[in-house]
Structure formats: C-alpha cells, structure tokens
Design goal:
The complex is a heterotrimer of chains A (about 900), B (about 230) and C (about 325).
Chain A: H1 7-10, H2 18-24, E1 57-63, E2 70-77, E3 80-86, H3 100-108, E4 118-119, E5 134-135, H4 138-154, E6 161-165, H5 172-183, E7 187-190, H6 197-207, E8 214-215, E9 222-226, H7 237-250, E10 252-256, E11 269-271, H8 278-291, H9 297-300, E12 301-303, E13 319-321, H10 325-330, E14 339-341, E15 343-345, E16 348-349, H11 351-357, H12 364-371, H13 375-387, E17 392-396, H14 407-420, E18 429-430, H15 449-455, H16 484-491, E19 499-503, H17 507-510, H18 514-523, E20 526-531, E21 543-546, E22 556-562, E23 565-571, H19 587-598, H20 603-611, H21 624-635, H22 637-640, H23 657-663, E24 665-670, E25 687-688, H24 692-704, H25 709-715, E26 744-749, H26 763-767, E27 782-784, H27 786-791, E28 799-803, E29 808-815, E30 823-827, E31 840-842, E32 847-848, E33 861-862, E34 867-868, E35 875-881
Parallel strand pairs in A: 6-7, 6-19, 9-10, 9-17, 10-11, 16-25, 19-20, 20-21, 26-30, 27-29
Antiparallel strand pairs in A: 1-2, 2-3, 4-5, 4-21, 8-18, 12-15, 13-14, 22-23, 23-24, 26-35, 27-30, 28-29, 28-35, 31-32, 33-34
Helix pairs in contact in A: 4-19, 6-14, 8-12, 8-13, 8-14, 12-13, 16-18, 19-20, 19-21
Chain B: E1 6-11, H1 20-29, E2 39-45, E3 52-58, H2 67-71, E4 77-79, E5 85-87, H3 97-101, E6 108-109, H4 132-139, E7 163-164, H5 170-173, H6 180-184, E8 190-194, H7 201-208, E9 224-227
Parallel strand pairs in B: 1-9
Antiparallel strand pairs in B: 1-8, 2-3, 4-5, 6-7
Chain C: E1 4-7, H1 17-42, H2 48-72, H3 81-84, H4 91-114, H5 126-149, H6 160-186, H7 204-229, H8 233-269, H9 281-305, H10 312-315
Classes of the chains: A alpha/beta (about 900), B alpha+beta (about 230), C mainly alpha (about 325).
C-alpha cells in the first residue's frame, strides 16, 4: 500500500491536546477554539451587531441513544455542539432522527457530569453511604487499577476480574474482549440479555437467525406489532416514523400491547392483551389461518389434494391413502392405495406436527379468556394479516417474549411470518445485507500461562447449567446471563468476584431485582466505573473514570440496519470533550497495558503494539490515541481503502479515510430478497414450525447434564413436556406474587425520550415527557385504568405506594383509559436515586424522581435464551395510597 | 415581487407525536426549558378498550388577525410584511397583554433570567462533578448549546422582563431555510412555505385536503393549518 | 371516562393583584374626581372640604394605581416605548394617553381647589381643568372596562356588562372613598365649616347615588352572570371555573358585605340625611368601607378569576 499524503499528519505528538490530535488526523472537524466570539447572550442584539452569525459546520457521527444507532450530524459552532440532524448520506435512517439525538446536547453539557478520575475514600459501600469521592489523576487511577490486576494475577485469581459492558461501539473488542482475555478472565459480561435475547430466540429457532430482523415497510400490506412500538423504540425509530404515514396509506396496522402505545395510537387495531399471554394469541391466530385455509400455499405448501384438513380439534394423519388424481400424481401413478404424505410442504418444516401437537385446539374462543382479546378480533386480525400474504409482517419485540416463559411466544409470533410466507420476502420480514468491517486480530499468541489458566474457569454468570441453558445461536451455554451475575456474586457460586470494570452500564439501576445489585456491589472489593454521570452504580465504585459521550467525544464505529440497508457509522469526536475523558474501549486498555508493562506484564501492550498498525502508514501505534485510530481504521478499512479486496463490493465505495470521516457512514447495497429460502441455517434448511434446531440444542443441553429434555423444561420453569418443547406452544404466564395479595399485573414500557436509562437528567426529557401517551411532564406516573382507580377509592394524581414481593416504590397515580383494567403500567427510565440533580428529586438525599421499576420487578429469567424476564407482567403488585 | 404569506400545514396523518419539533425548537431558538414555542396538545378519548389518543402539534399561529398585535401598546408585537407575527424585544415593556389576548397560549414571559442552571456554581458532588457554570465556561458560552444564528433577528436569549414566542424561525427563513420544527420532523408532517405561491408545499396540501385551524371561532385567521387525522377517526 | 387533554402552558397568573389594584385605584380616582367636580361646581360652601378631599384623592389614587401597574411591568425601562410608538388598535396605548391627561388635569384641579390663591395662567383654572377633566375621567373609567372587554380570549371579560360594571364601580367606589376619607379625616382635623355632626345633612343625593349605584351593580352582575351562564360553551366554562374558585369570595365579600349590606345600611340611614338630623359618621364610614371592599372584591374576582385557564376542550378545538 502506498503511503497517503495524510501519513505525516497521523503521528500526533505525545503531549498534543486531544483537539490537536483530531486536527492532525486531517479531518479538520473542529473549528479553532481560539477567539471565541463574545456572545452577548442577554442583551438584545441588533442586526448590525450580529451580522454573519456563526453558522458552524455539520460534522458526521453516530447517535447511540437507542439501538437504532443512527448516523447523525452535529452542527458545531466555535467548538460547541448546538444542533443535531440525520446524516443525509445515510440510507438506513435517510437523514431523519427521532427526538433522542436532540436530547444528547443536554447530556454532553450536563452540569452533573463526572469531571475527572475519582477515588473513593469511604470504604463502606451502600446506597446511603457517602463514597467520599476525591479527584485523582488519570495516572494514579490507571496505576491503582493495574496494581489490582497484578495482584489478582499473582494470586491465581484473575478469573475474579470481570468487565461489564453496557452501551458500546464496535471498538469494544479491545477492552471487553481482547484485553479481558489477555489478562486471563473469562468474565466479559455484556448487558445483552437484559435487553432482548428472547426475541432473537424466536427467529433463530424457526429460521436460524440469531439477530434482530429488518422489515420492508415500504412494501408491506399488513403490520402486526407484538408489543413493538416502532414509532417510539425498537431499532429503526426515525425510519419507522418517516415511513409510517405511507404505511398507513398502504397497509393495515395492528398493535398488540397492554398499553395504548405511540404506535397503537396510529394503528387500525389495538389488541390490549393481558401481559404475558402473547403466545396464546399468536397460536390462536395461527389456528385461524390454518383452519380458514389462509396460509401462503406457495411458501408453506398445501394438502396434496387441495382439501383443507385443518379442522379444529382434529389431528391429521401425515400419511394417508388418497384417491384423488393429485394423490395419484404424488404417488407416481401407483395404482394400489399406499400411504402418501397428505401435505406437500415447500419451504417450511413440520406444519402438521405443529398442528397436531399444539394448534388444533388453539381456537380463538380458547384464547379469548387467556389473553383478553375477543375471539372475533383475533379472527379478524389473523385473517386480515394472512390476506396480505407474503407482505404481512409479524413484528416481534421484547415485550412479547422477554418473559419467564417467553421463548415459545417468540417462536409463535415469528412463525406467523412462516405461515404467510413473508420471511425473506418483499414486504416482509428480512435479515441484513452484509457489512465489511472486521474485528481485532487474533490474540492467542499473547496469552501467558496465568491467562490460559484463568480462561479455563467457568464464567461467573452460571450459564450452561441445567437451569440456565442460555442457548444463543443454538449453542447451549453460549448466551450471557447478565442479571444472574449479582446472585452469583452474592452466593460466590461459582466463585466470588474481586474486581469489576463497568462501562456505560448501570446494573444497579437497569437490572430487575436492582436491590440485589446494590447488595452485590456493596460487597465487591474493587469496582471501577467508567461513566458520564455519577449513577447508581457509581455510588459503589472505588475508582470512577469519566467516560466520553459516545455521540460527541470519542472515536468508534457501529454496524446496524434499517430500511433494508446495513451500514457502518462512525463515532467521531466532534467537540473538545467537556470532561477529562479517555476513550474507554481503546485508550483505557492501552493506558492500563502500559501500567501493566511497567509492572512486568507486557503481553497486552505487546499485542496492541505488534498486532495493530495504521493501514495508511503501516506504522505501529505509539500511544493510546494512535492505537484507537489504528484499530478503527483497520476495522473499517474495507469501507474506505481502495486497496481492500472488499472495497466497493458490498456497498458504498468511499475513497480514503478522510472522506469516510467526513461522510461518517458506509451504506451497504440494498438487501436482496429470497436468498435464504431453503438455505436457512436451521437443521432442516427450512423455516421450521417443528424446530429440529431447537430439538438439537435442547438434546445437547440435556445430554450435557445427563437428563431428559423434559427435565430441562422443568428446570427452566416451562410446563410443557414431550415433543411440545420443539414447537411453538402455549405456556401460561408466570407471575410473582399472590393474586389476592397483589391484585394488579405490573408491566413496563419504554419512552420515546429514553436514551436508555441516561436521559432522565436532561430537563428537555422531563419537560416533554407527556409525549409518551399517558405520561406526565416532570413525573413518573403509574398508569391505571380509571375503573380500577375508582374501585380502589383512589383519585387521579394521588401518591401511591406500589408494592411487589420484591420491593416498594412511591409514585403518582394516573387514571388513564389506555391501560387494561387489572394491570398497571409504568415507563422504564425514571426513579433514579443518583445520576444527577434533574433525574433525582433530591440528589444529596438520594430521593428519586418517581420510582425505579427494577425495584419492583423480580429477577427472573427466560432461561432457554438466558434473558432477563422483564416483560409479560412477571410481577404482581399492590397499589395503595401513600 | 408578490407579497409573501408564510404558513405552515401540519399533516396529522403523518405526525407520530414524537416531540422532536419541540426539542429541536428549543435548541434552535435557545428557548428556556419550560417555554414551549413549539408545543403540543395530547388527547385521550373514549373508554377502554375503545380508547384513542391523538397529538396535536401547536405553535404560534401567526394569525392574520392577531390579538397579540392588536393589543400590544408599543407595537413590539407586529405583523411582518411576509405574514409572520413577530416580536421586537427592544420595544417590549413586559405588560403581558399579548399573553392575555392570545387564545392559544403560545406567548411566554421571562419572569427570570433564563437558563439559570448554567449559571449555578453548585456541584452535585463537590470536586467530583461539574457545576452548570463550569460546563458553560468549558463550552465557551453561557448556554453551552447556544445557537448564535438566532441573534440575527431576535435577542439570542430573551432577557428577563419581556415576552417571547415562535417566530416561524424568521432568521432561518431569511437565509432560505425552513423552520427548525419542519426540518427536525422525522415524519415530514410539517409543510412550510408561501401561501401566495400556488406551487408551495402548504398551498398544494391545502388544495388537496380540507384545512382545519385551532379555535376558528376566535376569528384570528391562523396561518397554521391542520390536515387529515392523527389516528382512527 | 371524559376526554383527557394535556397542554403545557406557562404557569402562574399573568396579571396579578397589582393590576387589580391599578383598576381599583383608577376607578376610585376617576369617581372621586367626578364627585369633587360636582361638589365644587354645585354644592354649598360647607361641602367644599369634602370636594377638596375628593379632588386630592383623584390624581393620587390614579397615580398610585399606575404605580402598581408600572411595578408590574417586566421591562420598566422600556415604558417610554408607549410614547415612541403609535398603536391605535391597542386599548392600553389609548389608556396610557388618557390616564396621563387625566392625572395631569385632576392634579391641577386639586391644586386649584387646595391653593386657589396661587397665581397660575387662566387656562389652568379649576373651571377649565375640571371641565376638561370630566370627559377624561369618564374615558378612563370606560377604559378600565374596555381594557379587559376587548380580550375575546377571556369570555369573562369580553362582555358588555364588563364595561358597565366598570363605570358603576368607579362611581360607587370613588364617592365611597371620598366620603370615607372625609369621615376619617374629620375625626383628626377640624374643618372650618360648622358643627361636625351636620356634615351629612345635604348629602342625601349622594346617598341616593351610592344606593342606586350599588343596586345597579347588583343588577349588572346578574346580567353578567346571565350573559355567561347562557352564553357560548367557553363562556359557561369560564364562569364555572371562576365561580368554583372565587364564587364564595364574590358572594360573601363582593355581594353580601360589599353591596347588599351597604344598601341596607344606606336605606336605613336615608331618613337621617337632611331634616336636621344626621346619620352616624361611623355608620356612614362603615357603609363606604364595605362598598370599597365590595368594589375591590368584584375587581379581584373579575381580573384574577377571569384569567383561569381556558378549558383545554376549547383550546383543542380543531375545525
């Protein structure tokens, strides 16, 4: 490769400020900090005084306020970020952004941000202990952490080190993956399973796709949302918002949600389901589609004689003697009546088995009392959905499956796409076009004996145990059990943890059973928290490191998909960081590696120096910032480097690094339909109604523990036995709390303003909260049906105590017709007792604004996927006047 | 050149009620947090399960017959040539009569100097977290995300003692851009332009759909029109 | 369940008690001026002290009211903008002009009454300033009603009875304030106009004016109520809201103690005016005080109660 003219600029001087590094990288993104014009903010400015106001520059970067991960642009004036907009070059969100990126302005300029590294001085830990934080230098912080790591390695306890990942960029493979392994710890714990793993379960065990799906909104004619609220959350927000008007013109929309969600408000049908009973509803819909002969025959196939044998309650013999001409053809003209398959299945597998095992009795009338949806509506929605054929989308979201028994609901809801043939189809449910990024190089040569020893240890989260199959991508014990770690730590089973580095995560707030995390973290000897704000988890930290804001203050990239395009989008430091921050995913491990090398353990640093080089200059990194850019440029090389074999092959052909940074996004080519059909990575290569893939995985897990699949079902709290374990089937919702003592089903939902749990300290969040249907500004209301409010003798606006078997919070009551009687709903995100002075009612006294749902929700799991069950009304509550 | 008559059409069918307009407006116009130049009415109607929800975005209606202008004792509130209802803060005496006269509640009065949180020297955890003042100093502006372009036609931040309101982003329109709420709308639900130009987006939309306005009976003749329905009719 | 509507508006009163004070004192002032002018022009010599008291009340009271209003202005330094800019559609702009003229004229008038021997140009005589002052006084009184009545966004204000009320209020409160102050002053100061117990002898017409004014106010308030109660939906809702918040206050202090009781007292005392008898000064004072309380209460309920937020069902009307 020839050295580009940029070469000379890539080498920043060691003591250069971060700004000059950025400038030196040739991007010229940030206007000079010198000579900030005097802003006469508070005096009226006449036209002359303000001639030629600084209009600034639009700089590309990425918003990670939710999982849509949109390419965005920031308007930078005098080194300040002042506006956000969608990146017009992006095909995923096509230049649109939802409300979240705007809120990020108040995050990056949050008065309550951590200003520099901090050290705890009070050894006692607890919610009401003052940590006694004192500022320290980065050098001292890194040295302290390195000492701790060395101590663990010396004592053969390096497996007791863990990294907790929350929001991340693709550069996380350094801190989260490589660095952890090089130290010798098996414990890189991501937040994934508190998010949506059960959703992936549905798609994987039917069509072999362990991922979120994309949806062809432009061509769809029916959209059936299972708890999905795409106008507010769920992975393609601005795209969905922008297309929704058109979708409403072209398609029918039905939303299944116990709450009148943002999307339900703009749908044709609202199905306010009893939380946790999505499976029953999906099965009844499948039943109707079959009985009415409304399935997609060109995708699923048909009875060989065209006669529909799906009669409620009747089993179908898969092999029958047939007399018709069609049957004669099917039997190659044999004259003697022989047994032939009665149903010629095309691109799917196991329809009759599903019918016989489960569907035949799942009538709408059966489902009505279970799921609370009138049979007539079930029938209508099912038939309208099926009438749209391959252009009908069954859109699964965490709400319908992040439930204790949600795995089969996930499969059932996704299987509807199989029935109508919308899988991988125009107007249907699709996967993703390929991207061209790559991750960090192999590290194996840099593992020493201590590391190898440590990596042999089981992971802390108890994955793979009989009761925790956590079968990500079909491999038992491969999925993370994020929320289980607190219990494992407390029980010291399989062992205790001695040191955790947690970044952009706040498990003491964001995990169900949050109280367990407070206890576990109180007992943890050494916690490093890398965070923008002093969050709940921070209050237990021994060392606090200020994190850069992902949108404005660091390098990185992520891959995602929307609108049938995959994309790679860069996180770019568009402003001078407000606090004294280091890139947590690359610079922090580099700095730690330097400290470790000083202490005689140089393998991580050698790995960084020897295995990474700048693709333009071929030079190895000499410092943390160079390392970051080396890794970023190498990972994304095929997006921008003409010499890369994949350049321009799968999407945009961007000429040069500088151009890529300026553009900010690489778009894949548009997704091509139909390439997966009959090549699904399932056991049968078909879309599986009877999941041979699940059978294989479950049997593997059972064999590992020398038990039967039935025993696995029992251990994982499922009630089914036998073959039912391999088909989508009904499982009654599991709820914690006695219905007499806790009469209401509690369920939570997301906010269109939630930048996950992090935007509640923004005044703009609080001042616009009522854009979430039913919610109130500056509050965190418990929404209850007015009939229930009256029945309890309560009044709208009362302060109420909400109590579950696990805990209790006090919030304001909101009488609202958008929730089902017998249920109460509250948005996730508020109830911070730390984080900042807006998020809390009284920061110093740890008084929350509202209440954290996770102090009510019991820590339980969808064990087959390892997910934390946070939906489906898994916790009952009592509501009384406070 | 024909006189302009700027107007906005809000397509409720496309609007999804996300409030991006409200927040983008605050960033564009340096609006204090509790003022809502761009605002919304939310409505929940009916009894479960026949419940409907709708969101009506609101802003200054830039009325043809604007009571705020009629009643202003100093002509601080005035109708511009292009149909916009604008406010000259230099003439405003802060009598708030415009607020009383406006039936839409879109005018706000600065009781205090705005953006106090960035003048505050207190830190949540002294020594560990910033104060608002420090963040402002580091950013280099009294309001860190202050938009200087706003100051071209209106005080960048309106001082204590005067009212303020939506100006249809006259400073952006003056340089050929659309108002911030229009560009920020991810649903493309807002159409802005000159009604005297039959080719303009709002003129076209009004030709196609039956326009509605808020409180028509007040006789204010708003220049913000609504078309189609938010949800199920 | 009824429809739920949410709209975030700026919290708090737009026009507070200071504006109530301005309107009240302004009314007292113009009423007192007219009373003073009538006494000066038509009454016997022994009523001239009363005329002087009333004449002094006029500019002082109106100025005090304007002071309150000025105190209320957000941007006081810009108040000259009212003079620099012509805003003929604004009632308030006219009000500023009229009140300016009135304060000047009434101050001159009072000065002439108090210091008749000071030499001043003829055009500044009591006759000229008084005669000129009368239309301005009436205009100011009407202005006080019109200021609110033109705000059609507030159904409580935008009505004919609003203006009538304003006119009646200034009549009643101006006279009452003058009498009250006179009665109070008399207990401290000796006026050189004969025995103290005969001051009210010739004031029967004044008593009639007060009784009739109060009674007319009652009727106007009733008309106002009818107007709103059977008016448009917004009017009905605004009335409902005002009565819910200030109904009791209005009934007890505005109507009961403020109008009915003084009427009763007045009627009872009427025979004592003239015929050589004289009503109790204390009772007269009390009746006047009650009328002032009543007048203030009505202003208060109208100004503050009239600002209760418009029902959102009205604000959300799309048509």
């Amino acid at each position: 490769m020839t050295a580009s003219p940029m070469t000379a600029h890539i080498k920043p001087v060691i003591d250069a400020s971060r700004r000059s590094v950025l400038k030196a990288a040739g991007t010229a993104l940030v206007a000079s900090a010198n000579g900030l014009p005097a802003l006469s903010l508070l005096t009226p400015t006449d036209a002359n005084a303000s001639k030629a106001p600084a209009t600034g520059t639009w700089v590309a970067t990425t918003c990670q306020g939710c999982t849509s991960w949109c390419p965005v642009q920031v308007r930078v004036v005098d080194g300040r970020a002042i506006h956000l907009r969608g990146n017009p070059e992006a095909k995923g969100n096509h230049g649109k952004i939802c409300p979240r990126p705007h809120l990020a302005l108040q995050q990056v300029y949050d008065p309550d941000r951590v200003r520099q590294p901090l050290k705890r001085t009070n050894p006692k830990k607890g919610r009401n202990e003052d940590p006694g934080f004192v500022p320290i230098s980065w050098d001292e912080a890194m040295a302290t952490i390195a000492d701790r790591i060395m101590e663990l390695r010396r004592n053969g306890e390096i497996h007791k080190y863990a990294i907790f990942r929350g929001r991340y960029t693709a550069l996380n493979d350094i801190l989260y993956d490589k660095f952890t392994k090089l130290l010798g710890s098996p414990n890189n714990i991501s937040h994934s399973s508190i998010c949506a793993e059960a959703e992936k379960f549905g798609a994987f065990y039917t069509e072999g796709y362990w991922n979120y799906r994309d949806y062809d909104l432009e061509e769809a004619r029916y959209i059936l949302c299972w708890g999905a609220d795409p106008l507010a959350s769920n992975r393609m927000v601005p795209h969905a918002i922008n297309f929704w008007g058109g979708v409403r013109d072209r398609a029918k929309i039905a939303v299944i949600d116990p709450r009148l969600s943002a999307t339900a408000a703009k749908a044709d049908e609202w199905l306010p389901i009893i939380p946790g009973e999505d499976g029953a509803l999906a099965l009844a819909m499948a039943h109707v589609i079959l009985v009415e002969g409304a399935w997609n025959k060109s995708f699923v196939g048909d009875f060989v004689d065209g006669k529909n044998r799906f009669v409620p309650g009747q089993e179908i013999q898969p092999l029958q003697t047939l007399a018709s001409a069609a049957a004669a053809t099917a039997t190659n003209g044999a004259r003697d009546p022989v047994l032939v398959p009665v149903f010629a299945e095309k691109h799917t597998h196991g329809l009759l088995a599903w019918w016989n095992l489960e569907l035949k009795d799942r009538t709408p009338e059966w489902a009505e009392p279970i799921c609370g949806i009138p049979a007539a509506q079930i029938r209508r929605v099912a038939l309208d959905f099926a009438a749209a054929g391959s252009r009908a989308i069954s859109w699964l979201s965490p709400g319908a499956c992040m439930q204790v028994r949600g795995a089969y609901a996930a499969m059932a809801a996704h299987a509807l796409n199989g029935l109508v043939g919308s899988v991988d189809a125009r107007g249907g449910v699709v996967t993703h076009a390929p991207t061209v990024t790559r991750s960090a190089p192999a590290h194996d040569a840099y593992l020493d004996d201590i590391a190898k020893e440590g990596l042999k240890r089981p992971k802390i989260d108890q994955r793979g145990r009989l009761e925790f199959p956590a079968m990500a991508s079909g491999r038992p014990g491969s999925g993370v059990l994020t929320n289980r770690v607190a219990d494992a730590m407390l029980a010291k089973d399989p062992y205790d943890l001695k040191m955790i580095i947690a970044y952009w995560s706040n498990f003491a707030f964001s995990c169900t059973g949050a109280q367990r995390w407070e206890e576990a973290l109180s007992k943890l000897p050494f916690l490093v928290h890398i965070t923008t704000n002093a969050s709940e988890t921070t209050m237990f930290a021994d060392i606090v490191l200020p994190a850069p804001h992902q949108l404005f203050e660091r390098w990185g990239y992520v891959n995602n998909k929307q609108n049938l395009h995959s994309y790679t989008t860069l996180n770019v430091p568009v402003i001078k960081p407000v606090a004294d921050v280091r890139n947590e995913e690359t610079e922090v491990p580099w700095l730690l590696a330097e400290k470790l090398a000083e202490r005689g353990f140089d393998l991580p640093l050698r790995y960084f120096k020897e295995m990474f080089k700048d693709p333009e200059t071929g030079q190895a990194p000499t410092n943390a910032q160079e390392f970051t850019l080396c890794h970023l440029k190498t990972s994304t090389r095929a997006c921008w480097d003409k010499t890369d074999p994949n350049w321009g092959k799968y999407g945009d052909a961007i000429d040069g690094w500088e151009a890529f940074v300026r553009r900010g996004v690489w778009n894949s080519k548009r997704f091509t339909y139909g390439q997966r059909v009959d090549r699904f990575p399932t056991v049968t290569k078909k879309f599986e109604f009877y999941s041979s893939t699940l059978k294989k995985a479950l049997e593997e897990h059972a064999a590992k523990h020398k038990v039967t699949v039935d025993e696995v079902m029992e251990a994982t709290k499922y009630v089914c036995r036998g073959e039912l374990a391999f088909v989508p089937h009904f499982e009654p919702a599991l709820r914690h709390g006695d219905p007499q003592e806790f009469p209401f089903i509690f369920f939570e939902h997301r906010s269109r303003l939630n930048r996950e749990g992090r935007s509640q300290n923004c005044t703009w969040y609080q001042a616009h909260k009522n854009c979430d249907p039913g919610d109130e500004n500056w509050d965190d209301v418990l929404k209850m049906n007015p009939a229930d409010v009256a029945r309890l003798g309560l009044r709208n606006g009362d302060l109420v105590r909400v109590t579950s078997v696990q805990g209790s919070i006090v919030v304001r009551l909101k009488a609202w017709e958008g929730v089902r009687p017998g249920t109460v709903a509250k948005c996730y995100g508020q109830g911070h007792w730390a984080y900042g002075r807006v998020a809390t009612k009284d920061f110093a006294r740890r008084l929350p604004r509202g209440g954290n749902n996770n102090e009510l929700l019991v820590a339980d799991y969808e064990r087959l996927s390892g997910s934390t069950a946070r939906h489906g009304g898994l916790t009952r509550v009592r509501v009384e006047r406070a | 050149m024909a006189k302009k008559r700027y107007a906005m059409v809000i397509d409720l069918h496309r609007c999804v009620g996300c409030a991006a307009c409200d927040i983008a407006c605050k960033a564009e116009n340096n609006v204090p947090v509790e003022f809502h130049w761009s605002n919304h009415i939310v409505e929940t109607r009916g009894t479960f399960p026949n419940t409907t929800f709708r969101y009506i975005p609101t802003l200054c209606n830039h009325c043809e017959n604007a009571p705020c202008v009629t009643n202003c004792p100093t002509t601080a509130m005035y109708k511009a040539e292009n149909g916009m209802t604008l406010h000259d803060a230099n003439k405003c005496i802060g009598c708030r009569l415009c607020q009383l006269a406006c039936p839409y509640g879109v005018i706000f009065f600065n009781k205090e100097t705005p953006h106090a949180n960035y003048r505050d020297s207190q830190a949540a955890i002294p020594g560990a977290t910033f104060s608002g003042r420090e963040v402002a100093e580091r950013a280099g502006a009294p309001l860190p995300y202050y938009n200087p372009a706003r100051a071209a036609t209106y005080p960048g931040v309106r001082p204590r003692g005067v009212v303020e309101k939506c100006t249809f982003c006259d400073h952006k329109v003056a340089v050929g851009e659309e108002p911030a709420c229009v560009t920020a709308c991810p649903a493309d639900a807002r159409l802005f332009g000159d009604l005297n130009d039959p080719e303009s987006k709002p003129a076209q939309a009004l030709a196609r759909h039956r326009p509605r306005v808020l409180q028509r009976d007040k006789g204010t003749q708003p220049h913000v029109f609504y078309i189609r329905e938010y949800g199920k009719a | 369940m009824e429809t739920e509507l949410i709209l975030t508006l700026q919290r708090g009163l737009i026009w507070d008690e200071r504006v109530v004070g301005d309107l009240f004192l302004g009314g007292v002032g113009v009423g007192a001026f007219l009373f003073a002018f009538l006494l000066w022009r038509f009454a016997e010599e022994r009523y001239q002290p009363l005329a002087k008291v009333a004449a002094v009340i006029a500019p002082v009271s109106v100025s005090a009211g304007l002071g309150l209003l000025f105190w209320k202005l957000g941007n006081k330094l810009n108040v000259h903008q009212m003079m620099l800019n012509v805003s003929p559609t604004s009632v308030m702009w006219w009000g500023a002009l009229i009140q300016g003229a009135f304060v000047t004229l009434s101050a001159l008038f009072a000065f002439r009454l108090l210091f008749p021997h000071v030499r001043l140009p003829k055009v500044l005589s009591a006759s000229v300033t008084g005669v000129l002052g009368v239309p301005f006084a009436v205009a100011v009184g009407i202005y006080h009603g019109l200021l609110l009545a033109v705000l059609t966004s507030h159904p409580l204000w935008a009505s004919g009875p609003m203006i009538v009320t304003s006119v009646l209020l200034f009549t009643v409160t101006g006279v009452a304030a003058s009498l009250l102050l006179y009665v109070v002053l008399r207990s401290f100061v000796r006026f050189d106009t004969g025995p103290s117990d005969t001051f009210a002898q010739g004031l029967k017409p004044v008593a009639w004016v007060l009784i009739a004014g109060a009674a007319l106010l009652l009727i106007t308030l009733f008309a106002w109520w009818v107007d709103l109660r059977f008016g448009s939906i917004p009017a009905r809702l605004a009335l409902q809201a005002m009565l819910a918040e200030y109904g009791i206050m209005l009934a007890v202090f505005g109507i009961g103690f403020g109008l009915v009781l003084p009427i009763v007292l007045g009627v009872l005392m009427l025979p004592r005016f003239g015929d050589g008898r004289t009503p109790s000064a204390a009772l007269v004072g009390l009746a006047c005080l009650l009328l002032l309380i009543g007048g203030f209460t009505i202003r208060y309920a109208a100004v503050i109660g009239g600002q209760l937020p418009t029902p959102l069902s009205v604000m959300a009307t799309l048509s």
